[in-house]
Amino acid sequence: MKMKTQDSADLCYPHLYNNSCKKPSSPWTEFVLVWIILSLISLITVALNLLVIISVSHFRQLHTPTNILLLSLAVSDLLVGFIPMPGEIYRSTSCWFLGDNICFIYNYLCFIITTASVGDVVLISIDRYVAICDPLHYQTRVTERRVKIFVCLCWLWSVLYGILFIKDDLIQAGKNNTCYGECVTTVDLISGTIGLVLYFIAPVITIIVLYMRVFVVAVSQARAMRSQVTAVKLRVSVTTAANKSELKAARTLGVLVVLFLITFCPSYCVYLAGVESFSAFSVFAVDFLFYFNSCLNPIIYALFYPWFRKTAKIIVTLQILKPDSIKNVLYFSVFKAS
Fold first, then answer.
1. Which of 287, 243, 253, 242 is nearest to 269 (CA)?
2. Which segments constitute the G-protein coupled receptors family 1 profile domain (predicted)?
């Protein structure tokens, strides 16, 4: 009787002895430390991406096609810090007590947000490819209106694409749970194959191919600019400055894309190999690594984009509340967004 009481204390729902999941078995000190660190990362992710969203939305000088894509990525990154990050922390440190319907909504939102993030990075790669490899037609081909349409299509696709993975839960919420206190979703072979192609293989190949092309062209342009004679420089100073701006943007966004691939690939590789082959902590670690990328993106902007450092200072010091906040920023040429 004593053994049964002790076992019941380890269950999420002791009154459902045979059908209840077991509580996560981590030491109390380890649980508190992990919870504090990951919660702090989640809060930083939300705060930093909120700065990006306010900056691009509020200051009209930043309403460029590239920055609209960064805005869309910042929205998905903010949602990552607001939903998937806390959700993964909760699932890894506690039983799921929120019910099957909330579990269904949570899993669906995670699919939408992560799919939109991948789509945004692909669009950013395409934007840089056109800007560097076809600069003469960039202004006419990549307009604000077209970029906004593609961003909307990206999010619409994410909403529709997520249904592919949660269709079983649409019929019956919690259908894939093996016990009470669990929140999981499973993917059948057909859906998994489609997801492998559309969500992993196609985006990764597209990103790598486009940026390899961008790198080759960028190197050749940099060499051409260095080899120009003084007389030629005087004639094409404006064009040269524009090229330098685009090259700098390409390098900055190249760092963003590389970090995205580094954090994205391990997570999908684990699921391809089969999560049952790895410990629960390993699966959680690679998932959170992918989510952690959402915290790194605004840090990249802060390191490489003067305009973000300037607008962040204006926002944090509440100067943005002043009527002339936009006019004051006009004095800074850093709003070239490069």
1. 287
2. 48-301
Domain that holds residue 96: 2-336
Amino acid letter, residue 35: W
**pTM for this one?**
0.84
Q: Which residue has the tokens 């692909």?
A: 122
- Map 305-320 to HEC letters: CHHHHHHHHHHHCCHH
pLDDT tens by residue, 18-66 = 788 887 776 666 667 778 888 899 999 999 999 999 999 988 888 899 9
DSSP 331: T
Tokens standing for 45? 């992710």
- Over residues 115-154, the pLDDT tens digits come to 999 999 999 989 988 988 888 888 899 999 999 999 999 9
The domain that contains 316 carries what CATH number? 1.20.1070.10
71/216 Cα distance (integer angstroms): 27
Please give the tally of structural domains in the chain. 1
Q: Do the Cβ atoms of 12 and 21 come closer than 8 Å?
A: yes
- b/e string for 21-50 if b means 16 or more Cβ within 10 A? beeeeeeeeeeeebbeebeebbeebbebbb
Task: Identify the residue whose tokens are 């089969």.
Answer: 274
Q: Which residues neighbour 94 within 8 Å (Cβ) at sequence distance 6 or greater?
A: 23, 24
Distance, in Å, from the CA atom of 103 to the CA atom of 99, rounded to the nearest integer, reads 6
CB contact set of 197 (below 8 Å; sequence gap of 6+): none
